[in-house]
Design brief:
alpha/beta, eight-stranded parallel β-barrel, 18 helices, binds 6-O-phosphono-beta-D-glucopyranose
Length: 504
């Protein structure tokens, strides 16, 4: 017997069942009444008969809005020992027992290194107009600095040429967490030298690729690789530094970004655009009233004081420095100037939102709302459903940081995907998630928030960091034993969004 089946619970269940049955019966009665009202011989009107082109006409995105998908080198490429690639911290970390689900590694991942043509074929089938990928630093500089690996660029050259033939515009991320292990051995992001090495690498890549790539993002999600890598230790390199140590790592990470911006500007072809992909705490007003909206704006600055805010304002907020006190990072005016280098665009990775309320009693004027235990989330337990965040994150950041060009560089979710015997994945929950988020994105764009494109995470199921191959974020199912790709139902959904350039 179910030990949890107490008399109270049984009584509650009975009451709920009774309620449900009566509601169902009520529905049947309504259906019967509607049927009776239809004229004999006339087909009953159905929603499917509505003309989608007409009903959705006002819900289109602006002409030229970019529809893309995103991936990252270590998550898809595999081929970790090929063509002179050096090891990265994720090779080391994933091969350390107990660090990833089931000891999964990115040794093979999606084997994209060898199957990129097939994957670009998938993009073409979807109708993608853009694709965001990242470069594995240790393929270009196996030791992070010093000798370049001439074969390092060959893969990206081949991949880019195929992409451009398919008329898909590349967006390139220079750092999506796979730091060369040789640099970690010298201190990694705890060392200022890593920031300088990153800038040198960024300049070399920009010089080589800017004839074909017009959009570069320096880094992906500072918060993730600083806090998960150096504070909680759940990601590579797996360290647990104290507050002072983490603040200094965060400073060198934003410095690396700033120096890389300068290096790209110095070496890339004229017209190259530079930005970064950020995952701010997406402060979302808990209720859409002026006081809660103002609170969310304040929270967006303060909660992101060490990442997006210092980059766009060129200084740490007083509240941030006060809160850290003696643990505040060491910095110089020259460093702050580099960190605040002007950018052409901001990439926003938005998966979830953090609700904020006005709070006059707090010195910062707001309070973060603690999530009730019942808050709905997707298959990853961190991925709370908050579609409004895709309206508020671009709207607030555009407003407070005076932005002219924003991309949603990642949005998507994990689902408990099952490949059915008929060979399909019916990921209706992912479609629900995407539809709700895109509706909010459309709301923002319709109001003139300058979002120019959207990149769905992800094209393929892939190596999901500490979750290994357990959590699937792709709109294409990958059988990791055979590498067979099967587009999921969400892929058909996204294809229709792109075809209409509008909500579906
Ligand atoms: C984003 C990262 O934050 O989240 C991606 O940029 C990642 O690389 C995605 O795959 C999902 O994260 P996780 O930790 O659940 O695998």
């Amino acid at each position: 017997m179910d030990a949890g089946l107490t008399p109270e619970r049984t009584e509650g269940m009975t009451k709920r069942m009774a309620g449900r049955i009566s509601r169902r019966k009520f529905g049947q009665l309504l259906g019967a009444a509607a049927g009776a009202a239809a004229l004999p011989g006339m087909p009953k009107a159905t929603i499917a008969q509505a003309e989608p082109e007409i009903t959705n006409a006002p819900r289109r995105f602006p002409e030229g809005f970019l529809w893309g998908s995103a991936t990252a080198s270590y998550q898809v490429e595999g081929a970790v020992h090929e063509d002179g690639r050096g090891p990265s911290i994720w090779d080391t970390f994933s091969h350390t027992p107990g660090k990833t689900h089931d000891g999964d590694t990115g040794d093979v991942a999606d084997d994209h290194y060898h199957r990129y043509k097939e994957d670009i074929g998938l993009m073409s089938d979807l109708g993608l107009t853009t694709y965001r990928f990242s470069i594995a630093w240790s393929r270009i500089f196996p030791q992070g600095v010093g000798a370049r690996n001439p074969k390092g660029f060959d893969f990206y050259d081949r991949m880019l040429d195929t992409l451009l033939e398919a008329k898909i515009t590349p967006y390139c991320t220079l750092y999506h967490w796979d730091l060369p292990q040789a640099l970690e051995d010298k201190g990694g992001w705890q060392s200022r030298d890593t920031a300088k090495a990153f800038a040198d690498y960024a300049g070399v890549v920009a010089e080589h690729l800017s004839d074909r790539v017009k959009y570069f993002m320096t880094v992906n999600e500072l918060r993730s690789y600083v806090n998960a890598g150096y504070e909680s230790g759940i990601h590579a390199p797996g360290l647990k530094l104290d507050r002072k140590g983490v603040a200094q790592v965060a400073h060198y990470a934003v410095l690396g970004h700033g120096l890389a911006v300068e290096a790209i500007r110095a070496h890339a072809k004229p017209g190259t655009k530079v930005g970064f992909a950020d995952n701010p705490q997406a402060a979302t007003p808990v209720i859409e009233t002026p006081e809660h909206i103002a609170a969310a704006e304040r929270a967006m600055r303060e909660e992101n004081a060490m990442y997006g805010n210092v980059i766009f304002e060129g200084r740490y907020t007083d509240a941030y420095l006060k809160k850290l006190g003696p643990d505040a990072p060491h910095f110089t005016p020259e460093e702050m100037k580099a960190i605040g280098s002007p950018l052409d665009f901001l990439g926003l990775n938005v998966y979830t939102g953090d609700f904020v309320r006005a709070d006059e009693s707090s010195p910062v004027g707001y309070a973060m709302v603690k999530r009730p235990a019942s808050s709905p989330h997707m298959y990853s337990d961190w991925l709370y459903v908050a579609p409004e965040s895709l309206y508020w994150a671009p709207k607030i950041t555009a407003n407070i940081w005076k932005l002219k060009e924003i991309y949603i560089t990642e949005n998507g979710c994990s689902s408990a995907d099952v490949l059915t015997p008929d060979g399909h994945v019916y990921d209706s929950d992912r479609i629900m998630y995407l539809r709700n988020y895109m509706t909010q994105l459309h709301r923002a764009v319709s109001e003139g928030v300058p979002v120019k494109g959207y990149f769905l995470w992800s094209l393929l199921d892939n190596f999901e960091w500490a979750d290994g191959y357990l959590k699937r974020f792709g709109i294409t199912y990958v059988d990791f034993k055979t590498q067979k790709r099967t587009p999921k139902l969400s892929s058909s959904y996204y294809k229709e969004v792109i075809r209409r350039n509008g909500l579906v």
